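Why does residue order matter? Because the sequence determines the fold. Keep that principle in mind as you read this record.
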Amino acid sequence: MLQEIELGRSGLRAPVIGFGCAALLGRTGKRDSLRALGAAWDEGIRFFDTARSYGYGESEALLGAFLKDRRGQALVATKFGILPALQSGWKRMAKSAARSLISMVPSARSIVRKAAGTQFSPNQFTIPVLLQSIEESLRKLGTHYVDILFLHSAPSSVLEQQDLLGAMGKLVDQGKVRMAGLSGDPSVVETALERQTEPLHAMQFPCNVFDLSAAFSMVEKNTTGMLLAANHPFGGTARVQASRSILRRLSATPHIDPVLKEKLGTIDDQTLAEIVFDCILRDTGIHIVIPSMMRVDHVRANVRAATHSRFTSTEVQLIRDSLSAERNLRAVAH
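Structure:
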């Protein structure tokens, strides 16, 4: 069973792995979404990360229904700042068709993702949007509070909007939000950490094994013990494939330690998950990793990886160095 940890100085506790809800009712239908949520709960996951825009505006409602009798045991984070378009009947049918297309032709994912991007209005960081979004989130989630409310993909200019930040602080004072935070690019998160921007006490950012430099930099700037959450840990299909290739080449290195060579003998889902979670969590200061995992076997592999890794700290550092060197070579080549 997953053990809970202190998430920085936030006062919140959860296991080191959370459940990213971006795919709920987006690229995954209701039945598979509920199956994945159930598997995550059974494995001990208690942190659920959603947003107003996820699932074309429907993810929060599904999560709320799932957590109806479990709310007191769960931590729920949501986001505002990206608005979903209203979904007519034909658009809902189109979503179902798109899921079927991807299941039959995985290479079509990028085309579908590009088309889906037109269904959202980003950079909506105003007080009216904030107040409307939090009320809509609370209604759909079926709760009177959320544990964390993140600014969603916020640009650095948001850090200058004192009126908006003040309004987020009032939501905390009112008890509708336990903690305010920022979810964005590493550069924006770093700026917020440097400034110790109030009332933001939780930071979420993309982090994968190809580039951990920003993560270490953020930890250095996190002098007040803010909650640090990493999302997109596998970096997408292309980076998963690239990671497997690099690890295979590392295992074939003539002077590699035989024990590590054996561990890297088969880069299956379990081994890759162990490496990803180790590289991001081991001695970095990041508190929680939030993958999107819609398959039950992926849920179980990720939980095992987060709790029972076979790799030592020395091996993890060697793997980090190998992946980083590969990234640098690719950057020079391009």
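Residues 99 and 257 are 44 Å apart (CA to CA).
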